[in-house]
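Lab notebook page, bench 4
Experiment: in silico fold of construct C2
Operator: M.H.
Input chain length: 123 residues
Purpose: comparison with the prior construct
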Amino acid sequence: MSGHVEEPRNFAPKDTPKLDPPKDDPISVAELAKHNGTDTTVAIWVAIKGSIFDVSGNNAYAPGGAYHLFAGKDASRALAQSSLKPEDCRPEYDDLGEKEQGVLNDWLTFFTKRYNIIGRVQG
């Protein structure tokens, strides 16, 4: 693992997935944390800017996968900084610079085109 995640270069997936309409159901941080891939009976979720995505179909987020550290968390800061450091995997991003905010918005667009939004992180 190189210590950083590649910025998204192409927003459109090769095969356009059939996505459900986005949901805005409130989901607690504790509930989000349960969806970290260690329990195979529940979906794997990753949050970005408070939106929670179901990434279950992508093995990169499962245990042993390159992006498993994002599973069950709001990974906004890590994605904005293109970081794979566990300490960067947190929701705070308001203090980041314009370039990093742009990278984060690119990741949000990337995820929105590939994964169902199943809710929003609650307070």
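Observations: The radius of gyration is 13 Å. The CA atoms of residues 79 and 104 lie 6 Å apart.
Next step: discuss at group meeting.
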